[in-house]
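Just curious: can you write a single protein's sequence together with how it folds?
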Amino acid sequence: MKKNLIFWMLTLSAIMVFTACSKDDDDDGLGDKNAGSNNTWDVAVTGAVLEKSATGAVITGYVNLNLIEEDYSSYEMGIQIGHEGDYDSSNSWGGKEYAHGLTGNKFTITLTGYASGLKWYFRTFVRVNGKYYYGEVKTFYTDEIANTLANLVTAGNATDITSNSTTIPYSVNPDLWTKDADSSIRLLRGGVLLSNNKSLLTEKFLNIRGIDGIYGHLDNPDDFIIELEDDLDESGEFSFMLDGWFSSHSTYYYCAYTLYKSGKYIFKIGPVMSFATK
């Protein structure tokens, strides 16, 4: 089995600042907000996620043109949507999906071709005379297949720890992907990620940077990420033996990961574990 070691040592040149959305993350955008009669309390009202798939969703929204005070001859409406790496405090994040017609004050949009395994932010928008009205921000995940991918590689407890070396065991089960294969998703590789900075081992950080950005600059020149790569073509129990990479009396962090492509490159990681050198 091919196993490669890729050393990511340079760090982040730009930081994106994220704000929490007004909808609790565990709500997942499901269910209309019970306020007003037929969602009529604002010009633009964000609706619900009616259905989800690995690469899309069916989303509703509400538009109440009677609340617009100025005269207008035309308007646009739809869903503003962006993934976790797009979303920020401005009004320009993500992209727009346009609705074409209302049933009463409600529209429905079917989203397709979106990347699996990401958290998506969305809200209703209405544009009248160049002015935008927005509903509240809600979220949902396209994660069904991605959750399977996250279990392809499992990391174990580090062993044989010395002042500058350790062995990290891991297991691979490619049958999980064969069983649930999807033609829209291409599995690239997996293995173990290791770092001296726990905050770098998050899906948010990895997916914001993307496959190109992760090899760029990190904020702290002393930080590093090591990619212990496996081609995932063989089932079994394996291990990576690392010697000379560490400082004594220091703590290091690691996790299993998979990298796949579904429209864009996406990392899925397992629980972050740690060990301390002697």
